[in-house]
Specification:
By secondary structure, the chain is an alpha/beta fold. The chain folds into two domains: 2-107, Cobalt-precorrin-4 Transmethylase, domain 1; 110-232, Methyltransferase, Cobalt-precorrin-4 Transmethylase, Domain 2, CATH 3.30.950. The chain has eight helices and 13 strands. The strands form three sheets. A five-stranded parallel β-sheet has the order 3-2-4-1-5, sandwiched between helices. A five-stranded mixed β-sheet has the order 7-8-11-9-10, sandwiched between helices. A three-stranded mixed β-sheet has the order 6-13-12. Strand 12 (225-227) and strand 13 form a beta hairpin. The chain is elongated.
Length: 240
């Protein structure tokens, strides 16, 4: 059995009971190096194997091969479907017909970070990764344009890195063509981990803010507001 497990933000409090049970049933836990190190503190008696960044295919192949003979957990941060390894596990799993694959959902950063800020995702929203390693930059720009134009709250993953320092600024410039600079925004860094920090600010302020790959960014819609210091997007229940 191969369990593709969403481990949430990384701390045990944010992990679902189903995820914890899948990890306990597994003899080997496979994952990205940083995520493996996070889990070792909670499951010290397990066997671990890890690979670095940009070695996703190698990681999944390793997990599938090992799962031919024992129960294996392939871990992903947040949810394994959202920018995770679940899809790739099914794609490569065709070559491993004797391995059963079970996806164990987890709480993705959009929701765990949103809870830190308040409730920015009460209405329709779009999740967009600014990383262009696997998605063409032009397609990312088009998605930003469409989401901004239709007034959905936008959650940005992978908003910046050392080699993409200006990607968030460019994304904000696209959104500013459709939304006012005073729109309520927010970000959370290191969600659920040591050093967690968050801030609520305007879209204009966000444009000139430095963030990193461990930051999740929230761009409100025309109705998003600040209530008692929290970022809130109403759905309209009070008007019914």
């Amino acid at each position: 059995m191969l369990y593709v497990v969403g481990m949430g933000a990384g701390d045990r409090d944010g992990m679902t009971i189903a995820a914890e049970q899948a990890l306990l049933r597994s003899e080997l836990i496979v994952g990205y190096t940083k995520y493996v190190e996070l889990l070792k503190a909670y499951f010290p008696d397990k066997e671990y194997a890890s690979t670095g960044m940009k070695q996703e295919r190698k990681r999944v192949e390793l997990a599938l091969k090992e799962a031919e003979n024992r129960n294996v957990a392939l871990i992903c941060s947040g949810d394994p479907q959202l920018y995770g390894m679940a899809g790739l596990a099914f794609e490569l799993g065709i070559s491993y017909p004797d391995v059963d694959i079970e996806v164990v959902p987890g709480v993705t950063a959009a929701f765990s970070g949103g809870a830190v800020l308040g409730s920015p995702l009460t209405h329709d929203f779009a999740v967009i990764s600014l990383s262009d390693l696997l998605t063409p930059a032009e397609k990312i720009r088009k998605r930003l344009e469409c989401a901004a134009e239709c007034d959905m709250v936008i959650v940005l993953y992978n908003p910046s890195s050392k080699t993409r320092a200006d990607y968030l600024q460019k994304a904000c410039d696209i959104i500013l063509k459709h939304r006012a600079g005073e729109i309520v925004c927010g970000y959370v860094r290191n969600i659920g981990r040591d050093g967690q920090e968050s801030r609520i600010l305007t879209l204009s302020e966000l444009r000139d803010t430095a963030v990193d790959m461990f930051t999740t960014v929230y761009i409100g819609n025309s109705e998003t507001k600040i209530i008692n210091g929290k970022m809130v997007t109403p759905r309209g229940y009070r008007n019914v």
